[in-house]
Specification:
Elements: H1 2-26, H2 29-68
Length: about 70
């Protein structure tokens, strides 16, 4: 699940960057602003996915240590 969030976030960032560039090239500020929003939202989604992966990894590591100490 977290991996999917990272992938979707990265895709949204990429689409946002493309919208920003197209908006700049065509002088369409509305598209440039929408692209900036998409890029930032994508970055946030990717960060949430990465954090979830880290939490899951830490939890699995802790479980492994607990099993060894029993």
């Amino acid at each position: 699940m977290a991996e999917a969030k990272r992938i979707r976030g990265r895709a949204q960032e990429t689409v946002g960057k493309a919208k920003q560039k197209f908006g700049r090239a065509t002088g369409r500020d509305d598209l440039r602003v929408k692209g900036t929003g998409d890029r930032i939202e994508g970055k946030a989604r990717r960060a949430v996915g990465e954090m979830a992966d880290k939490v899951k990894g830490t939890a699995e590591e802790f479980k492994g240590k607990m099993r060894r100490h029993k």
